[in-house]
Amino acid sequence: MSTKDFLEKDYYKTLGVAKTAKPAEIKASYRKLARKYHPDANKGDASAEERFKEISEAYSVLSDEKRRKEYDEARSMFGGGFRTPTGTRPGQGGFGFDLGDIFSGAGDAGGRLGDLFGGVFGGGSGRTTAQNRPRRGADVETETTLNFGDAIDGTTVALRLTGEGPCPTCHGTGAKAGTVPRMCPSCGGTGQESRNQGSFGISEPCHECHGRGLVVDDPCPDCSGTGRAMSSRTIQTRIPAGVADGQRIKIAGKGLSGERGGPSGDLYVRVHVKPHPVFGRSGANLTVTVPVTFAELALGAEVKVPSHRGAPVTVRIPAGTPTGRTFRVAGKGVRRKDGTNGGLLVTVEVMVPKDLNGKARHAIEDLREATAGQDPREELLDRAKEA
Ligand SMILES: [Zn+2]
Ligand SMILES: [Zn+2]
């Protein structure tokens, strides 16, 4: 498996699961497909065998939490159709992102991701091969963390994007002021060299110019001849109201710059939402669990429950309500795009006191006596005997 595989193969599609699939779904789908295409069940069927291999490969990545994350990151970074380098060319005014930054923290996966990084940027500048057409910039993903309330109301966040651009001293040429780079004599400026290995011809970045196609005799002191320099920019981004934890927001045109006049890629912002100590979210509904007494459920009661950023609301509990029942308070949830509001889902939960004072203890003992004839498990025990 290579970086190229990561970019070109859609493992989710291979396993027939959504990108958001839970590990259990992935496992179930893998098992089903593996049974269907297993070589033992398809003797002599080469296409089934091929399919079985693909399924196994996809599962080996998606079943491993860490590798799945790497795979997702690689794909979200470069999109499905990303195939060729998009390094900053000398003199190009574009602003690239520092993928190394995004990849840092990949731990021992650094080898594979470093490979990817090198493949993408190493051959960036001097390539004069096939694609001289305008090329759309790659998509980029970043993350932001919001407070619970900001995610509900919408907010503006500052996203700091670290990027690699042309060195301001040498304007990206990599050559010291007053000198110019010359074409690499080894590869003739293509940045590529070919070598034969067995029956394959392999094309790889030129060892002389490291894929740039240019060599610098007198390097620029500020960028050591690379022609690139790190800088960062901050963009203000509006996060719409009602985003959920884990959601990805697309910001068109804020990804990597295009090449040769191609449009910029898009920026995707993965939103994390900090949990609230009291409220939860379920789509446009807010959720809250409210402790109640046995007496309140048995006899009925009106209880005050908190609402998010509002006055407490009163929920009427009818007599004989079981614990765990959920009541919906309309309009106290998250505002939807169409202007309507979700509800507040109030789940009641019996609170059993740890210490009972004498009077309460007597009352409960009396209750036990008064209900001694009722076994709440009688029906359960009967039904358990059914075949
Ligand atoms: Zn420079
Ligand atoms: Zn060269």
Give an overview of the whole structure.
This protein is α+β, with helices and mostly antiparallel strands and 387 residues long. Helix content is 27%, strand content 25%. The protein has helices at residues 3-8, 11-15, 23-37, 46-62, 65-78, 99-103, 110-121, 148-153, 294-299, 358-370, 378-383, and strands at 96-97, 140-146, 155-166, 182-183, 192-197, 200-205, 214-215, 228-239, 248-251, 267-273, 280-282, 285-292, 301-307, 310-317, 326-329, 344-350. The strands form six sheets. A four-stranded mixed β-sheet has the order 11-12-16-15. A three-stranded antiparallel β-sheet has the order 1-3-8. It has a three-stranded mixed β-sheet with strand order 2-10-9. A hairpin with a 2-residue loop joins β13 and β14 (310-317). α3 (23-37) packs antiparallel against α4 (46-62). The protein is elongated, with a radius of gyration of 31 Å. One zinc ion (ZN) is lined by residues 184, 186-187, 191, 206, 208-209, 213. One zinc ion (ZN) binds at residues 184, 186-187, 191, 206, 208-209, 213.
User: So what's the overall shape?
Assistant: elongated
Number of strands: 16
- Can you list the ligands bound to this structure? zinc ion
Strand order of the largest sheet: 11-12-16-15
Question: Which structural class do the helices and strands define?
Answer: alpha+beta
Number of helical regions: 11
Radius of gyration: 31 Å
Helix content: 25-40%
Oligomer: single chain
End-to-end separation: 51 Å
Q: Which SSEs are present, and which pair or pack?
A:
Elements lengths: L2 H6 L2 H5 L7 H15 L8 H17 L2 H14 L17 E2 L1 H5 L6 H12 L18 E7 L1 H6 L1 E12 L15 E2 L8 E6 L2 E6 L8 E2 L12 E12 L8 E4 L15 E7 L6 E3 L2 E8 L1 H6 L1 E7 L2 E8 L8 E4 L14 E7 L7 H13 L7 H6 L4
Parallel strand pairs: 2-10, 12-16
Antiparallel strand pairs: 1-3, 3-8, 4-7, 5-6, 9-10, 11-12, 13-14, 15-16
The chain binds zinc ion (2 copies).
The site of one zinc ion has 8 residues, from loops.
